[in-house]
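Cross-posted from the bioinformatics board.
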Amino acid sequence: MPETTSARSRTRRSEALGAWLLTLPAALSFALLMLLPTLAAIAMAFTDYELGLVPVWIGLENFRELLEDRGFRRSFLNTIIYVGLVAPLSVGLGLALALLIEAGARGRVFFRAVFFLPVVSLTVAMAAAWQYLLHPTIGPVNTLLRLIGITGPAWLSSSDTVLISLAAIGVWENAGFNMVLFMAGLTAIPRELREAACVDGAQSGWSRFWLVTWPLLGPTTLFVVTITMIRSIRVFDTVAVLTRGGPNKASEVLLYTMYTEGFTFLRLGYSAAITLVFLVIVLALMWVQTRVLDRRVHYG
Amino acid sequence: MTYPTRLPGLSVEGARLSLGGTPILRDVSLAVARGEFVALLGPSGCGKTSLMRVIAGIQAADAGVVRIGGREVTGLHPAQRDVAMVFQSYALYPHLTVAQNIAVPLTMRRLSAAQRLPLLGGLLPGSRAARAAITADVAGIAEPLGLAHLLARKPGQLSGGQRQRVALARAVIREPGAFLLDEPLSNLDAALRVTTRREIVEIHRRVGAATLYVTHDQSEALTMADRVAVMQAGNILQIATPEEIYREPVDLRVASFIGSPRINLLDAEIGEDGVVRVSGAATALHSHARGNVTLAIRPEDWVMGAEGQEARVEHTEFLGDHALVHLRMGAGTVTLRAGPGALPHAGEVLRLGFDPARALVFGPDGRRIAAHRREPACA
């Protein structure tokens, strides 16, 4: 029956056409706003484009320069140290806060709001408060340290402590966000499982945590760790406001280097190469989350 | 049923509980002997699960004493109470294998916190022997429950019936003094439910614990239990054998909750002569009480014949071995269980009498009133 077959394929074709028409607005805006700029940035990374000049294709030259650029290597290392400090500490603190607030009978809403405040407040504005807190002479932190006989360092202007100080601010910024995510994860754990753990002999809160809470928080923890790493790799505003990468590049981080190369020195091609490195790291993290770890923390 | 050796199993005395101002348990007392199987039967929201949670120690009661194996456990943590519980949702640990799930009550008790550590724990002294013993115990309990081939699976890979068995195995592996089951069959399909009933009774016999089985399904309660405790609105109305609960309910609420189809209730009054009358017509029942009462007759206790109340057949339901006949009697309707023989037709008017030995009379407060067959007047 050739007629019906061709009729059927005709309907299928018109259906496909309709589907394409319906997705067109979304597809078009995705292409214009996301795909094209990303591709342009990737392409730019292989040129020596500087603002106002004609870009010339130079292949991997930018990346070779990055490898030899001591400033970039410093910035890359600083970012890793920053993430290495902020991610575990803010995840651990977020989990501890969530468990404490969940276990407490009163004041849940109050404590949740207090610890979530850094997330909703403007980091740039809060940075001013941190600058005061960490001021070497008039700052309350060093004043308190003096009371117990310790001379505090110049937190933000000494190359030994600047990264630690920025990481502390990063932990303060992220812990509340992680706490809220963990609290959502905790409420998803069936109450009967904890009760079963009690009846099964898990007498201490500690043993119930390891028997039920921690394993069942697996998916949440994985998500929180990934999102915290991505958020802390993107650290920029505290650095830009408080230290400008200094002193002596001791607090240069990836995005700040990219910003200075692109917007101060106007070397857009080089800046795009840094962006590409950044993009690859973020994508790798997301890939690890979805492909490798997801399988180990979801219990089918 | 009486137990020649009523060893102390579990008991609750004077349990009271209210949550958020709503009374859940009102002075509940219950005792289950060692080796006895008691079903706690009631509609949802009657407090039966709360009572079980109070016994397990998951929920603290406002007042009352809980004893398990003769020892008072009222203030103790669930882990110290010698109870095991099967939850309605089974509450299996999704990240552990079947074997690990079943082993949890043993690892929690036999291994120290350090010995439970994933890798390091295995190196500690005594750990290897203890773990080997646990593995052997798990295999021993899994075999008769047909779980031997599933030990390496995760709960997510099991069917509902298999999960339920894992939950049972986990509960009984420790040979608890009190064995609590919270509607364990409600998530299974109908066919599986009937076979699992017998399995649970067999497990109970093997373990010999004091078993309390919470259910809202009267056929489960009547078929499985040595005694049934009927609970409603936070009170236990009656605790008795299944036969007694069905034949001799002490409360109108018990009579109307037990039995399917529902027991027929007729308004009746007892005159000064002590004769029970329905719509003015004398019945064969006699009582010392006076005033308005409720006459309750099971659908199988009607007698179709020349005597009794007139009733018009509304419709009949043929069910194979028997049939249900729905009739209009006065202002109300009644149900009659008839044999599979010739069925009355719709519209037909019958006269319904009843077996006076089986009829039940309840006072206005719902309590049972003694009533007897009226003796033929002695000349």
